[in-house]
Amino acid sequence: MSYKTKLTIDELDFRGKKVLVRVDYNVPFEGDTIRDDKRIRETLPTLRKILDGGGAVILISHCGRPEGERNLEFTLRPCAVRLEELLGRKVKFVGDCIGEEARKVRAAMTAGDVVLLENLRFYPGEEANDPEFAKKLAGDADIYVNDAFGTTHRKHASMVAVTGFVPLAAAGYLVLHEMNMLAGLVENPLRPFVAIIGGVKVSTKIGMVNYLLDSCDEILIGGAMACTFFESLGIKSGASLCEHDQIDVARRILEKSGSLEQNSGKLLLPIDAIVTDRIAPEGKRQVASFDGVPDDMVIADIGPDTVTRFKKQLENAQTIIMNGPLGVYEIDKFSHGTREIFKALAERHENGATVVLGGGDTASAAKKFGIENRVTHVSTGGGASLKVLEGKPLPAIEALTERG
Length: 404
Known about the structure:
By secondary structure, the chain is of the alpha/beta class. The protein has helices spanning 38-41, 44-52, 77-87, 100-107, 124-127, 131-138, 173-187, 206-213, 225-232, 247-257, 304-314, 336-350, 360-368, 382-389, 395-398; strands at 18-22, 29-30, 33-34, 56-60, 92-94, 114-117, 143-146, 168-171, 193-197, 218-221, 267-268, 272-276, 286-289, 298-302, 319-323, 354-358, 377-378. Helix 8 (206-213) packs parallel to helix 10 (247-257) and helix 9 packs across helix 10.
Protein backbone atom coordinates (compact mmCIF):
# COMPACT_ATOMS: atom_id res chain seq x y z
CA MET A 1 0.00 0.00 0.00
CA SER A 2 1.11 3.60 -0.59
CA TYR A 3 1.87 4.32 3.09
CA LYS A 4 5.44 3.16 2.48
CA THR A 5 6.09 6.14 0.22
CA LYS A 6 4.91 8.71 2.79
CA LEU A 7 7.00 10.96 5.02
CA THR A 8 7.45 9.64 8.57
CA ILE A 9 8.21 11.17 11.94
CA ASP A 10 11.76 9.76 11.90
CA GLU A 11 12.67 11.83 8.84
CA LEU A 12 11.92 15.25 10.36
CA ASP A 13 13.85 17.86 12.32
CA PHE A 14 11.61 19.29 15.03
CA ARG A 15 14.06 21.77 16.53
CA GLY A 16 12.29 25.10 17.04
CA LYS A 17 9.21 23.89 15.15
CA LYS A 18 5.54 24.06 16.09
CA VAL A 19 4.05 20.66 15.37
CA LEU A 20 0.31 20.11 14.89
CA VAL A 21 -0.40 16.53 15.96
CA ARG A 22 -3.71 14.86 15.17
CA VAL A 23 -4.42 12.27 17.85
CA ASP A 24 -7.42 10.10 18.65
CA TYR A 25 -8.41 10.87 22.24
CA ASN A 26 -11.97 9.64 21.73
CA VAL A 27 -11.71 7.71 24.98
CA PRO A 28 -14.55 6.12 26.99
CA PHE A 29 -15.77 8.14 30.00
CA GLU A 30 -17.73 7.47 33.17
CA GLY A 31 -18.85 10.95 34.10
CA ASP A 32 -15.65 13.02 34.04
CA THR A 33 -13.42 9.98 34.62
CA ILE A 34 -11.56 8.31 31.77
CA ARG A 35 -12.42 4.61 31.86
CA ASP A 36 -9.62 3.49 29.54
CA ASP A 37 -6.62 5.69 28.64
CA LYS A 38 -5.09 3.28 26.09
CA ARG A 39 -5.55 5.71 23.19
CA ILE A 40 -3.73 8.44 25.11
CA ARG A 41 -0.88 6.14 26.12
CA GLU A 42 -0.47 4.95 22.53
CA THR A 43 0.51 8.48 21.42
CA LEU A 44 3.30 8.96 23.97
CA PRO A 45 6.17 7.73 21.74
CA THR A 46 5.26 10.23 19.03
CA LEU A 47 4.90 13.11 21.48
CA ARG A 48 8.21 12.33 23.20
CA LYS A 49 10.00 12.12 19.86
CA ILE A 50 8.83 15.64 18.97
CA LEU A 51 9.53 17.11 22.41
CA ASP A 52 12.95 15.47 22.74
CA GLY A 53 13.73 16.86 19.30
CA GLY A 54 13.11 20.42 20.46
CA GLY A 55 9.61 20.92 19.10
CA ALA A 56 6.39 22.34 20.57
CA VAL A 57 3.26 20.17 20.36
CA ILE A 58 -0.24 21.36 19.44
CA LEU A 59 -2.67 18.46 19.91
CA ILE A 60 -6.01 18.21 18.12
CA SER A 61 -8.63 15.49 18.48
CA HIS A 62 -12.32 14.68 18.30
CA CYS A 63 -14.40 13.09 21.05
CA GLY A 64 -17.87 11.59 20.69
CA ARG A 65 -20.54 12.93 18.35
CA PRO A 66 -21.46 16.50 19.33
CA GLU A 67 -22.95 17.00 15.83
CA GLY A 68 -21.04 20.18 15.02
CA GLU A 69 -22.16 22.05 18.13
CA ARG A 70 -20.38 23.06 21.32
CA ASN A 71 -21.45 20.43 23.85
CA LEU A 72 -19.24 20.19 26.95
CA GLU A 73 -20.43 16.65 27.58
CA PHE A 74 -17.73 15.87 24.98
CA THR A 75 -14.96 18.12 26.25
CA LEU A 76 -11.36 16.95 25.98
CA ARG A 77 -10.33 18.68 29.23
CA PRO A 78 -10.00 15.40 31.21
CA CYS A 79 -7.66 14.11 28.48
CA ALA A 80 -5.31 17.05 29.12
CA VAL A 81 -5.21 16.17 32.82
CA ARG A 82 -4.45 12.51 32.12
CA LEU A 83 -1.87 13.28 29.43
CA GLU A 84 -0.06 15.62 31.83
CA GLU A 85 0.23 12.73 34.32
CA LEU A 86 1.46 10.29 31.68
CA LEU A 87 3.85 12.67 29.96
CA GLY A 88 5.30 14.11 33.16
CA ARG A 89 5.12 17.71 31.94
CA LYS A 90 2.60 20.55 31.83
CA VAL A 91 -0.20 20.20 29.27
CA LYS A 92 -2.17 23.40 28.71
CA PHE A 93 -5.81 22.96 27.72
CA VAL A 94 -7.47 25.54 25.46
CA GLY A 95 -11.25 25.70 25.39
CA ASP A 96 -11.48 26.08 21.61
CA CYS A 97 -9.66 24.55 18.62
CA ILE A 98 -9.70 27.75 16.53
CA GLY A 99 -10.34 31.40 17.33
CA GLU A 100 -8.46 34.14 19.14
CA GLU A 101 -7.68 32.29 22.38
CA ALA A 102 -6.17 29.34 20.51
CA ARG A 103 -4.21 31.70 18.23
CA LYS A 104 -2.69 33.60 21.17
CA VAL A 105 -1.71 30.46 23.07
CA ARG A 106 -0.11 28.97 19.96
CA ALA A 107 1.77 32.19 19.17
CA ALA A 108 3.37 32.17 22.62
CA MET A 109 4.54 28.53 22.48
CA THR A 110 8.21 27.63 22.70
CA ALA A 111 10.17 24.36 22.54
CA GLY A 112 8.85 21.76 25.00
CA ASP A 113 5.37 23.26 25.33
CA VAL A 114 2.33 21.01 24.96
CA VAL A 115 -1.17 22.30 24.23
CA LEU A 116 -4.38 20.32 23.78
CA LEU A 117 -7.12 22.15 21.88
CA GLU A 118 -10.84 21.53 22.42
CA ASN A 119 -12.94 19.00 20.50
CA LEU A 120 -12.72 19.43 16.73
CA ARG A 121 -16.27 18.20 16.23
CA PHE A 122 -17.69 21.22 17.99
CA TYR A 123 -17.47 22.68 14.48
CA PRO A 124 -19.37 21.25 11.46
CA GLY A 125 -16.35 22.09 9.30
CA GLU A 126 -14.42 19.17 10.77
CA GLU A 127 -16.58 16.36 9.42
CA ALA A 128 -17.31 18.36 6.26
CA ASN A 129 -13.57 18.48 5.45
CA ASP A 130 -13.99 22.23 5.08
CA PRO A 131 -10.80 23.91 3.78
CA GLU A 132 -11.43 27.18 5.63
CA PHE A 133 -11.75 25.36 8.94
CA ALA A 134 -8.64 23.32 8.07
CA LYS A 135 -6.67 26.49 7.31
CA LYS A 136 -7.52 27.88 10.75
CA LEU A 137 -6.46 24.59 12.36
CA ALA A 138 -3.15 24.65 10.51
CA GLY A 139 -2.48 28.20 11.69
CA ASP A 140 1.20 28.76 12.42
CA ALA A 141 2.19 25.07 12.44
CA ASP A 142 5.47 24.19 10.69
CA ILE A 143 4.78 20.45 10.59
CA TYR A 144 1.69 18.22 10.76
CA VAL A 145 1.91 14.71 12.22
CA ASN A 146 -0.97 12.25 11.98
CA ASP A 147 -1.01 9.80 14.89
CA ALA A 148 -4.76 9.10 14.84
CA PHE A 149 -4.98 5.75 13.08
CA GLY A 150 -8.55 5.14 14.22
CA THR A 151 -9.84 7.96 12.00
CA THR A 152 -7.54 7.60 8.98
CA HIS A 153 -10.48 6.26 6.97
CA ARG A 154 -12.37 9.53 7.55
CA LYS A 155 -12.09 12.37 5.06
CA HIS A 156 -12.26 15.07 7.74
CA ALA A 157 -10.64 18.50 7.87
CA SER A 158 -8.09 17.60 10.56
CA MET A 159 -7.15 14.42 8.68
CA VAL A 160 -7.11 15.47 5.03
CA ALA A 161 -7.73 19.15 4.19
CA VAL A 162 -5.30 20.40 6.85
CA THR A 163 -2.36 18.82 5.04
CA GLY A 164 -2.76 21.39 2.28
CA PHE A 165 -1.95 24.25 4.67
CA VAL A 166 1.18 22.90 6.40
CA PRO A 167 4.60 22.58 4.70
CA LEU A 168 5.16 18.96 5.76
CA ALA A 169 2.69 16.22 6.76
CA ALA A 170 4.05 12.97 8.20
CA ALA A 171 2.92 9.73 9.82
CA GLY A 172 3.43 9.29 13.57
CA TYR A 173 4.58 6.12 15.31
CA LEU A 174 1.10 4.82 16.09
CA VAL A 175 -0.03 5.16 12.47
CA LEU A 176 3.18 3.52 11.22
CA HIS A 177 2.88 0.64 13.67
CA GLU A 178 -0.75 -0.01 12.76
CA MET A 179 -0.05 0.07 9.03
CA ASN A 180 2.95 -2.24 9.40
CA MET A 181 0.95 -4.65 11.55
CA LEU A 182 -2.05 -4.74 9.21
CA ALA A 183 -1.09 -3.85 5.63
CA GLY A 184 2.54 -4.95 5.98
CA LEU A 185 1.54 -8.28 7.50
CA VAL A 186 -0.90 -9.13 4.71
CA GLU A 187 1.63 -8.21 2.04
CA ASN A 188 4.46 -10.33 3.46
CA PRO A 189 3.19 -12.91 6.00
CA LEU A 190 5.01 -15.87 7.46
CA ARG A 191 3.09 -19.00 6.49
CA PRO A 192 0.78 -20.71 7.12
CA PHE A 193 -1.28 -17.50 7.19
CA VAL A 194 -4.77 -17.91 8.70
CA ALA A 195 -7.55 -15.34 9.06
CA ILE A 196 -10.48 -15.69 11.46
CA ILE A 197 -13.46 -13.56 10.50
CA GLY A 198 -16.58 -13.25 12.62
CA GLY A 199 -19.31 -10.76 13.32
CA VAL A 200 -22.90 -10.40 12.27
CA LYS A 201 -23.02 -9.31 8.64
CA VAL A 202 -21.37 -10.59 5.48
CA SER A 203 -22.05 -7.18 3.90
CA THR A 204 -19.59 -5.43 6.25
CA LYS A 205 -16.85 -8.06 5.81
CA ILE A 206 -17.20 -9.00 2.14
CA GLY A 207 -14.36 -6.76 0.97
CA MET A 208 -12.03 -8.15 3.62
CA VAL A 209 -12.84 -11.79 2.84
CA ASN A 210 -12.26 -11.22 -0.89
CA TYR A 211 -8.97 -9.40 -0.28
CA LEU A 212 -7.61 -11.91 2.23
CA LEU A 213 -8.50 -14.88 0.03
CA ASP A 214 -5.67 -13.81 -2.26
CA SER A 215 -3.04 -13.94 0.49
CA CYS A 216 -4.32 -16.29 3.22
CA ASP A 217 -3.84 -20.04 3.30
CA GLU A 218 -7.12 -20.46 5.18
CA ILE A 219 -10.03 -18.32 6.37
CA LEU A 220 -12.16 -19.51 9.31
CA ILE A 221 -15.67 -18.05 9.38
CA GLY A 222 -17.78 -17.67 12.54
CA GLY A 223 -20.47 -15.46 14.00
CA ALA A 224 -23.90 -14.85 12.52
CA MET A 225 -22.36 -14.05 9.14
CA ALA A 226 -21.80 -17.80 8.67
CA CYS A 227 -25.59 -18.19 8.30
CA THR A 228 -25.57 -16.29 5.01
CA PHE A 229 -22.88 -18.60 3.65
CA PHE A 230 -24.91 -21.65 4.67
CA GLU A 231 -28.04 -20.18 3.12
CA SER A 232 -26.12 -19.86 -0.19
CA LEU A 233 -25.61 -23.63 0.03
CA GLY A 234 -29.31 -24.24 0.66
CA ILE A 235 -28.83 -24.86 4.39
CA LYS A 236 -31.19 -23.06 6.78
CA SER A 237 -30.04 -21.71 10.14
CA GLY A 238 -33.31 -21.60 12.05
CA ALA A 239 -34.42 -18.10 13.03
CA SER A 240 -30.87 -16.70 12.81
CA LEU A 241 -30.11 -13.52 10.91
CA CYS A 242 -29.48 -14.12 7.22
CA GLU A 243 -28.67 -11.36 4.74
CA HIS A 244 -30.74 -12.57 1.83
CA ASP A 245 -29.41 -9.82 -0.44
CA GLN A 246 -25.89 -11.17 0.13
CA ILE A 247 -26.56 -14.84 -0.69
CA ASP A 248 -25.22 -14.62 -4.24
CA VAL A 249 -22.15 -12.76 -2.98
CA ALA A 250 -21.52 -15.43 -0.35
CA ARG A 251 -21.82 -18.19 -2.94
CA ARG A 252 -19.33 -16.46 -5.24
CA ILE A 253 -16.85 -16.30 -2.35
CA LEU A 254 -17.30 -20.01 -1.70
CA GLU A 255 -16.71 -20.68 -5.39
CA LYS A 256 -13.60 -18.48 -5.44
CA SER A 257 -12.20 -20.25 -2.38
CA GLY A 258 -13.01 -23.73 -3.70
CA SER A 259 -15.28 -24.32 -0.69
CA LEU A 260 -18.64 -25.25 -2.20
CA GLU A 261 -18.09 -28.73 -0.78
CA GLN A 262 -17.77 -28.87 3.01
CA ASN A 263 -14.24 -29.46 4.35
CA SER A 264 -12.68 -28.28 1.09
CA GLY A 265 -10.97 -25.16 -0.14
CA LYS A 266 -9.59 -22.15 1.70
CA LEU A 267 -12.74 -21.06 3.52
CA LEU A 268 -13.92 -23.16 6.47
CA LEU A 269 -17.42 -22.80 7.91
CA PRO A 270 -18.58 -23.98 11.37
CA ILE A 271 -19.87 -27.54 11.73
CA ASP A 272 -21.95 -27.02 14.86
CA ALA A 273 -23.34 -24.18 16.94
CA ILE A 274 -24.69 -23.10 20.30
CA VAL A 275 -28.34 -22.18 19.73
CA THR A 276 -30.86 -20.40 21.91
CA ASP A 277 -34.49 -19.31 21.95
CA ARG A 278 -33.40 -15.73 22.66
CA ILE A 279 -30.23 -13.72 22.90
CA ALA A 280 -30.37 -12.98 26.62
CA PRO A 281 -28.64 -14.26 29.77
CA GLU A 282 -31.73 -16.32 30.59
CA GLY A 283 -32.00 -17.81 27.09
CA LYS A 284 -31.72 -21.57 26.56
CA ARG A 285 -28.37 -23.03 25.55
CA GLN A 286 -28.03 -26.18 23.49
CA VAL A 287 -25.76 -27.65 20.83
CA ALA A 288 -26.98 -28.24 17.27
CA SER A 289 -25.29 -29.18 14.02
CA PHE A 290 -25.10 -26.14 11.73
CA ASP A 291 -27.41 -27.84 9.26
CA GLY A 292 -29.84 -28.87 11.98
CA VAL A 293 -30.75 -25.66 13.80
CA PRO A 294 -34.39 -25.81 14.99
CA ASP A 295 -36.69 -23.37 13.16
CA ASP A 296 -37.45 -21.39 16.33
CA MET A 297 -33.83 -21.11 17.55
CA VAL A 298 -31.01 -18.69 16.73
CA ILE A 299 -27.27 -19.28 16.62
CA ALA A 300 -25.41 -17.56 19.46
CA ASP A 301 -21.93 -19.12 19.30
CA ILE A 302 -19.82 -21.67 17.47
CA GLY A 303 -20.20 -25.17 18.90
CA PRO A 304 -17.64 -27.45 20.62
CA ASP A 305 -16.79 -29.44 17.49
CA THR A 306 -16.14 -26.21 15.59
CA VAL A 307 -13.92 -24.96 18.40
CA THR A 308 -11.90 -28.18 18.18
CA ARG A 309 -11.71 -27.95 14.39
CA PHE A 310 -10.65 -24.30 14.36
CA LYS A 311 -8.00 -24.92 17.01
CA LYS A 312 -6.61 -27.71 14.86
CA GLN A 313 -6.32 -25.34 11.89
CA LEU A 314 -4.41 -22.85 14.05
CA GLU A 315 -1.86 -25.31 15.42
CA ASN A 316 0.85 -24.58 12.86
CA ALA A 317 -0.17 -21.06 11.79
CA GLN A 318 2.68 -18.54 11.83
CA THR A 319 0.57 -15.47 11.00
CA ILE A 320 -2.99 -15.01 12.27
CA ILE A 321 -5.37 -12.09 11.82
CA MET A 322 -8.74 -12.06 13.60
CA ASN A 323 -11.55 -9.60 12.91
CA GLY A 324 -14.90 -10.03 14.63
CA PRO A 325 -16.06 -12.24 17.53
CA LEU A 326 -17.41 -15.74 16.86
CA GLY A 327 -20.51 -15.43 19.01
CA VAL A 328 -22.43 -13.21 21.42
CA TYR A 329 -19.36 -12.88 23.65
CA GLU A 330 -21.00 -10.19 25.82
CA ILE A 331 -23.24 -12.89 27.39
CA ASP A 332 -21.15 -15.42 29.30
CA LYS A 333 -23.12 -18.51 28.31
CA PHE A 334 -22.55 -17.66 24.64
CA SER A 335 -18.91 -16.59 24.95
CA HIS A 336 -17.22 -20.01 25.04
CA GLY A 337 -16.27 -20.17 21.35
CA THR A 338 -14.70 -16.71 21.17
CA ARG A 339 -12.91 -17.22 24.50
CA GLU A 340 -11.46 -20.62 23.49
CA ILE A 341 -10.18 -19.34 20.15
CA PHE A 342 -8.61 -16.36 21.91
CA LYS A 343 -6.84 -18.76 24.29
CA ALA A 344 -5.54 -20.67 21.28
CA LEU A 345 -4.30 -17.42 19.73
CA ALA A 346 -2.46 -16.49 22.93
CA GLU A 347 -0.79 -19.90 22.91
CA ARG A 348 0.24 -19.50 19.28
CA HIS A 349 1.73 -16.09 20.09
CA GLU A 350 3.68 -17.59 22.99
CA ASN A 351 5.06 -20.13 20.51
CA GLY A 352 6.32 -17.46 18.12
CA ALA A 353 3.38 -16.77 15.81
CA THR A 354 2.39 -13.21 14.86
CA VAL A 355 -1.19 -12.64 16.06
CA VAL A 356 -3.07 -9.44 15.21
CA LEU A 357 -6.59 -8.54 16.33
CA GLY A 358 -8.52 -5.88 14.41
CA GLY A 359 -11.89 -4.21 14.95
CA GLY A 360 -13.65 -2.62 17.90
CA ASP A 361 -15.66 -5.67 19.00
CA THR A 362 -12.61 -7.90 18.69
CA ALA A 363 -10.58 -5.55 20.88
CA SER A 364 -13.40 -5.37 23.45
CA ALA A 365 -13.64 -9.16 23.57
CA ALA A 366 -9.87 -9.48 23.93
CA LYS A 367 -9.98 -7.13 26.89
CA LYS A 368 -12.88 -9.02 28.47
CA PHE A 369 -11.03 -12.33 28.21
CA GLY A 370 -7.70 -10.88 29.36
CA ILE A 371 -5.61 -11.58 26.27
CA GLU A 372 -5.02 -8.06 24.95
CA ASN A 373 -1.42 -8.26 26.21
CA ARG A 374 -0.92 -11.87 25.10
CA VAL A 375 -0.97 -11.26 21.35
CA THR A 376 1.31 -9.34 19.00
CA HIS A 377 -1.00 -6.41 18.36
CA VAL A 378 -4.54 -5.19 19.05
CA SER A 379 -5.52 -2.51 16.56
CA THR A 380 -6.74 0.83 17.91
CA GLY A 381 -8.88 1.42 14.82
CA GLY A 382 -12.17 -0.31 14.03
CA GLY A 383 -13.29 1.11 10.70
CA ALA A 384 -9.74 1.99 9.70
CA SER A 385 -8.43 -1.52 10.30
CA LEU A 386 -11.32 -2.93 8.29
CA LYS A 387 -10.41 -0.71 5.33
CA VAL A 388 -6.77 -1.80 5.50
CA LEU A 389 -7.80 -5.46 5.58
CA GLU A 390 -9.98 -4.80 2.52
CA GLY A 391 -6.91 -3.48 0.70
CA LYS A 392 -8.48 -0.04 0.33
CA PRO A 393 -6.60 3.29 0.58
CA LEU A 394 -7.06 5.46 3.65
CA PRO A 395 -7.77 9.14 2.80
CA ALA A 396 -5.68 10.49 5.66
CA ILE A 397 -2.65 8.39 4.69
CA GLU A 398 -3.01 9.38 1.05
CA ALA A 399 -2.95 13.06 2.10
CA LEU A 400 0.49 12.87 3.76
CA THR A 401 3.62 14.27 2.09
CA GLU A 402 5.37 11.95 -0.37
CA ARG A 403 8.90 11.06 0.68
CA GLY A 404 11.76 12.55 -1.31
